[in-house]
Amino acid sequence: MASSITSSSSRLFPITRDSQPTSHSPSNFSKFASFPSSSSSSASKTSSYISCSLTRDPSVLPLEEQTNLSNGSVPFQRPDSFGRFGKFGGKYVPETLIHALTELEAAFHTLSADEEFQKELAGILRDYVGRETPLYFAERLTEHYKRENGEGPHIYLKREDLNHTGAHKINNAVAQALLAKCLGKKRIIAETGAGQHGVATATVCARFGLECIVYMGAQDMERQALNVFRMRLLGAEVRPVHSGTATLKDATSEAIRDWVTNVETTHYILGSVAGPHPYPMMVRQFHAVIGKETRKQALEKWGGKPDVLIACVGGGSNAMGLFHEFVDDKDVRLIGVEAAGFGLDSGKHAATLTKGEVGVLHGAMSYLLQDDDGQIVEPHSISAGLDYPGVGPEHSFLKDIGRAEYYSITDEEALEAFKRVSRLEGIIPALETSHALAYLEKVCPTLPNGAKVVVNFSGRGDKDVHTAIKYLKV
Amino acid sequence: MMTCKLQLGGAFAFARSNNHSVSIESSSLMVATDHQNKTNNNLLPRELAMATTCVPTIKPLLEKELRTHPQETNNDIINSGKFGRFGGKFVPETLIVCMSQLEAEFNKAIHDETFKAELAEALRDFAGRETPLYYARRLSEHYKINNNGKGPDIYLKREDLNHGGSHKINNALGQAMIAKRMGRNTVVTATASGQHGIATAAACAKLGLDCTVFMAAKEMEKECSNVKLMKLLGAKVEGVNGSYKDAASEAFRSWVGEMEKSYHLTGSAVGPHPCPTMVREFQSVIGRETRKQALEKWGGKPDVLIACVGTGSNALGLFHEYLHDMDVRLIGVEAAGCGLDSGKHSSTLAAGDVGVYHGALTYLLQDQDGQILPPHSIASGMEYPGVSPELSYLKESGRAEFSVATDQEALDAYERLCKLEGIFPSLEAAHALAILDNLVPTLSDGSKVIVNCSGCGDKDAALVFDHKLFHGKV
C-alpha cells in the first residue's frame, strides 16, 4: 500500500515539469558526481568513490552481477550496494540529498545490528502498536469458497487492521521515528494527501515527543478537515501549501524543499517501499515483521508454510512486509493485487505492474504509468492508498524475474469484497485491502483442496465507511 | 419456588427466587432493608414506581416453560444474582424461567473446556487479545515534571486495540457464542454510543447470526459513523425515541416477543440476574491479563486501578480480578456532565438513590416521585441513569471508590493523551484519565497506576471538533 506515496497522500518528489532537477524524470539523463557509498550489508563503513552515469535505458549500465541462481531462488542481496533490485531501484535524487540518504542507510545498518535498538523497537511494537497481530482462520469465507464437492482452500487473514491506528503503516512509522530519534533528529516531516499517512506520522511523533510538520495541499485540507484536526490534536503542525493545484504533488515539493533546507535536523518519514535507496529496503525491513510472524503462526497452526500469499499493492509496503520472509521459499506463491479502477481498458486505473513501463519516479527506477512522452498518467482508484502511478522497485524486480505474480481488481470488485467480508466475517476491510480479498474470487477455484491461503488484511475500513455506503447503498 | 408479589396499581411484578438462590426471607429482606435504610418518606411509592419502569408486556406462561426445570447450577462462578443487597431478578413471571435457563446455559458453557478453548481462540484471533499493558511514559513524565521528577508510573490497559475499538467485544463474543450454543439464530441488543452495537454486529457476522440493534434516534444522528458500521456488518439498526434507556427497554420488549428464536445480548453489567454476572465474567479477562502483565513488567501488583463507569462493564472487567487484593485501590469515574449541581450529569453512584431498574436493585438517578432522571454526558457510553448492581455493592461496602469528571475535564484529558502518547482515548475512557490531575499528587513516587483505556476515540474526534467549533476554540 502506498502509505505515503499516493496521489492522495504523498509523493516524494514532484512530477510536474516546473519541478526539481531532471533526476526523477523518466525521459532524461542523470549524471552524478562522485559520492561516497556505504556498504549495504556490513556494519562497518567502507568508503569508495564511484562515478556513474545513467541513460534512459538502464540495461546498458554496468550492473553488479545479479543473476538468478540455478535453482530458481532469488539472489540473497536485495538490494545491492547501489540500492538496486536487478535494474530497479537506485537513488535518483538531487545532490543535496545524497548525504542524508547515505547517512540514513548507514544508521539503518548500524541500528539493525544494535540489540538495544531492536529490543526497544520490539517493545514498542508489542505495547504501543499491539503486535503480534493474529493469523485468523476465516471460517465463513473459507466455507463461501468451497466447491460443490466440499473442497476448497483454507483462508487465513493476517490481521494488520488490529494495529494501533488501524493499518500496517505504523510498523514503519514507529521504527523510522525511533531511528530518527537515535540519529538525534528532533524534527520529522511528511506530506499527505487524504491524511492517512499524516495521521500515522503525527501519531508516532506524539509518542516520541518529536516535532512534526505535515505538508498538505490547501485544497486537500478543506476536503479532509477532520484528518487535519486529528493531526493537530496529535500535536502536529499542518502547513497548508497554496502553490500549483494546492494538492498532494505540491505538498510533496514543499516537503522536499523543507528537507533539503533542514536536512541536518530533520528526518523525512517516507511511508512506502518506493522512493530512493535506502527507503525501499528500510521500509520493507520495518514491515518484514508481518512475514516473520506469519511464518511462526503458520507453523503453530498447521505445522507448515502458506501455499499462497495475497496482498494489495499501491506503493507495495504491506505486500513486501508479508512477502519478504518467503521470497526464498519458492513453493510459496506471492500474489500482488493492484487497482484496476474503472477497468484496465478505461485508462482510469492504477495497475502499474500490469500496464506500466519502466522509468524513474520519485527517486527510483521502477514500473510506472506513463504516456509516450514519459509524462505521468494520473491514476485512479476508489481507494486512496492504491491510487499511485508508480510501485516499489522491489515489486518491479519480483515481477520481472517471475517470482511474484501481479493482477488487478476493479473498484466494483473491491466494493463487493468489502461488503462480502464485512458480512461473512464481521471484519470491515479497508478499501485497499478489499482488492486483495476480491482476488480470492478468481484464485480460489483454481487452488487444490486444503491449500493454505494467507491474505494480508492490511487495514480496517472505518475510514471508508462513507465511501462504501454511498456506492453499496446499504 | 417461593414468591413474593408486589401489587403495583394494575401491573404485577414478581420478585421471585428459586431454591438455589435467595430465600423468601431474603427477598422480603431485600425490600425491607430498603425501607429501613431509607430516610426518605416517599420510599414506597418510589420503589414501586421503579419496579414498573421497565416491565415488558406479560405473556401467559407457556406450558413448556412451566415444566422445564433448570439444571443444578454450580455456584463456583454463578452466585445468587445478589451483590450484598443489590442485584436480583426483578422481572415478570414469564421471564423467570428464561433467565434461569440462561443462567444454566451460561454456567454449563463456562465450565465446558471446548467452549472455553473456542472462546479463547476467538478472543485471540478475532478480537486481537491479549491487549497490551502500555507504559505511558510521556503522560507519567507530564505529572512528574511538576514534582521534582517524582510521581506514579502510569500504565494504560489498551482495550482500544480490540477489534471493534473497545472492550465491548469481549462480552459480545462470549454471549454470541452462548446464543449459538442455545440454537438461537437472532440476536437483539441495544447500544448507547454504538460501540456495543458494533461489537455485537461483528460477533454475529462471524458466527452467522442475524442481528438487530436498537439505538436512540438522537444517538444515531450523533454517532452516524457507528450506525453505518453496524449496517455494513449486516445488522439491522432500529431507531428509538428517547435515550439509551428507552432503546434498552425496546430491545428487551422485542426479545420477549421472540423468546424461542432470539437471544437478548446485554452489553453492560446491568439488568436482571444472570446478566450482570455474565457480562462481568466475560470482561474479567481484562483483569486476568493485567495481573499477569503487571507481574511480568514490574514483578508486582498495581497500586491503583482506574476505569470509567457508565454502566460498569469495563470497570468490573478490570477490577474483578483484584477484588480480594485489599492493597489494590479501585477507582471508578462517572460522568459529571455539566457538573453535579447542574442536574445534567450521569453520576449515578455519586448522586443517585437505590431502587429497582431494568430488573435489578441498584443505584439510579431518580426524582422525588421515583421517576428516572434523564442522564447527560458528552460521552454517550456514560449516559445511563443506572449502574451495575455489583458496583453499587462495591460502593456500599467501601471496596471501591467513585469519583466524577465533567465533560470539559474529559475533553481536556482526551486532548492530553493525544498529544502526549499519540493515542485517541474514547470520550468514555477520557473520564478515567481526567481524574489523574487530582489523584496523581496524592500518590507516592513509583506507585503503579493502571487506567483502563476502554475504547478508541478517533471516531470521537468529530465530536470534539464540533464542540470546539461551537465554543469558538477552532
From TrEMBL, chain A:
Pathway field: Amino-acid biosynthesis; L-tryptophan biosynthesis; L-tryptophan from chorismate: step 5/5
Bias kind Low complexity: ranges: 25-45
The cofactor named in the record is: pyridoxal 5'-phosphate
Record's keyword annotation contains Signal: no
Its keywords, alphabetically, are: Amino-acid biosynthesis, Aromatic amino acid biosynthesis, Lyase, Pyridoxal phosphate, Tryptophan biosynthesis
List the CDD domains hit by this protein, alphabetically: Trp-synth_B
The biased composition feature labelled Polar residues covers 1-24
Chain segments carrying region Disordered: 1-45
GO terms for MF: tryptophan synthase activity
Residue ranges of every copy of the Tryptophan synthase beta chain-like PALP domain listed in the record: 130-459
Give one Pfam hit by family name: PALP
Q: Which reaction does it catalyse?
A: (1S,2R)-1-C-(indol-3-yl)glycerol 3-phosphate + L-serine = D-glyceraldehyde 3-phosphate + L-tryptophan + H2O
What InterPro entries is this protein classified in? Trp_synth_b_CS, Trp_synth_beta, Trp_synth_beta/beta-like, TrpB-like_PALP, TrpB-like_PALP_sf
RNA-binding listed as a keyword: no
EC code? 4.2.1.20
Q: What is the name of the protein in this document?
A: Tryptophan synthase
Species the sequence originates in: Stylosanthes scabra
Automatic annotation (TrEMBL), chain B:
Enzyme Commission number(s) from the entry: 4.2.1.20
SUPFAM superfamilies per the UniProt record, alphabetical: Tryptophan synthase beta subunit-like PLP-dependent enzymes
Q: Which cofactor does it need?
A: pyridoxal 5'-phosphate
- Coiled-coil region(s): none
Q: Which residues form the Tryptophan synthase beta chain-like PALP domain?
A: 127-455
Identify the pathway: Amino-acid biosynthesis; L-tryptophan biosynthesis; L-tryptophan from chorismate: step 5/5
Catalytic activity annotation: (1S,2R)-1-C-(indol-3-yl)glycerol 3-phosphate + L-serine = D-glyceraldehyde 3-phosphate + L-tryptophan + H2O
Q: Which CDD domains match?
A: Trp-synth_B (cd06446)
A single MF term (Gene Ontology): tryptophan synthase activity
What are the protein's UniProt keywords?
Amino-acid biosynthesis, Aromatic amino acid biosynthesis, Lyase, Pyridoxal phosphate, Tryptophan biosynthesis
UniProt keyword Transmembrane helix present: no
Gene3D superfamilies, per this entry?
A: 3.40.50.1100
Q: Which Pfam families match?
A: PALP
For this entry, the protein name equals Tryptophan synthase
The organism named in the record is: Stylosanthes scabra
State which gene encodes it.
TSB2_3
